[in-house]
Design a protein that fits this description.
alpha+beta; eleven-stranded antiparallel beta sheet
Length: 531
Amino acid sequence: MQKRLLIAFVISWVILVFYHQFFPQKADKLSPPHSEYPQIIENKYDTEKSSTSPQGQDTAFLDVETKESIEILENDKLNVEISNIFGEIQSLNLNEHQYKYPLEKILRVNNQEKSLFSITHKSKNEISYQQDIQNFTIRKNYKLIDSVIWGEISVFNKSSSVSNYSLTTTIFSINNLLIDKSTRDSTDISLLEYAYSQNGQIIRKGNAAQFNQKEKKTVSGNFDWFAFRSRYFCFVVKPLFESAQFMINPENKDLLSFELAQNEISLAPSQSITLKFKIYAGSQDVNILKEFDPKTEHLISFSGFSLFDLFAKLSVKILNFLYQIFRNWGLSIIVIAFLIYAITYPLTLKGMLSMKKMQLVQPKINKIKEQYQGNPQRLNQEIMKLYKENRINPFGGCLPFILQMPVFVGLYQALWRSVVFKGERFLWIKDLSQPDRLFILPVNLPFLGNEFNILPIFVGIAMFFQQKISAKNAIILDETQQAQQKIMLVFFPIFLAVIFYKFSSGVTLYFTIFYLLSTLSQWKMLKVKLV
């Protein structure tokens, strides 16, 4: 049973670290959409503010390589770079967290191969562009308020007759070449995801680090929102009008675009159509997303498994509550480790007692195996009879630990993906979202790099003593088992230390405390005498 428990632990930790890479996120169900926003069509257009290009001609085919200019809208939260080419948001940065989204071509109007817009208005937090092309004037307006960008695209019929216009807009493009891979490890990149919501259902694509043509699709209907998210941050575009269809277009393995298409529109002379967008760029904070739009709160998902996701979200709420009391995230992590340990202790104790009972009857089981080794059916009957006489559940040792897995995995995801730990200090730890990095080594070690992280070593030490105490509870009947026990006494602590070495210090801090408490439980179990 000790061996089975060890195997269960190893499998559990492999699942803990890698499960999200093998099981993509499933669609979440939301409540039915609320009333839709109509697109705005007007019979009049304010032409007094209209201005043509400096040369008084169409600008669609100008030499954009020499005439590109970048304008910036900025506040303490966002830096938005807007290009006069296509009048699009070209770059988006979070000032507070020094994070650059791997996004481009935000709200591009796809009407020409090369399209140059002129500025018609600019203030500290707002800018307007215009382009004249054939029978139409296209105007774009951006306004930045806190973490929200309000975008408008207007098409005006400047001709003297009815004209038709098909408006296709690139909502945004994901360009993974913009990711600075030198500052991210593969685990961060694997958390990239794009998603959209239609008719109350969220469709997700996880591990969006590379794209292929299988992702290409055209979807008809009205949509609630489109989104991109990374480990900590998200980007959400909500169309404030009825949309006809959109396309997911993977251009190559590193570039994928969301394109929104409207039905062809007939505009009378001096008539216009205006499409409005509401854009959020910031942390994956459920309260902020609720304020942005109640439908978007379900974008935040810690796991494709509902049970794991439930415990992760519950853990976030508990951590936030503890932070309000202690005003320190490191201390909050330690307290939640004690709370989880206390809550799961009855299951842990039950599992340990069951394992100890199994150890006591192990000599009798071995005798039964010798006596009935040629009769498997009788062998199983006698073993089950022995279990029944001693009131032993053969699965009682492992089952409590398996039942605790949703709690552990959910909490792990909450600690791993919560932006609140980014930049937070605790004792010698400079950033709870990163390894604790006590100091930098002069050389690079295989698998470990050049950072000396002490918390993973504490995890290994705690596991070593836990294994050593557990071995004292075990009844070793032959030399083979004894040799295996000695190997695992060394191997398993090293295995865990290596697994945790690149984890964020917030995650490692939690499991350091939890393993120390578990070791204490094992020590107490030595004193328990079973009749």
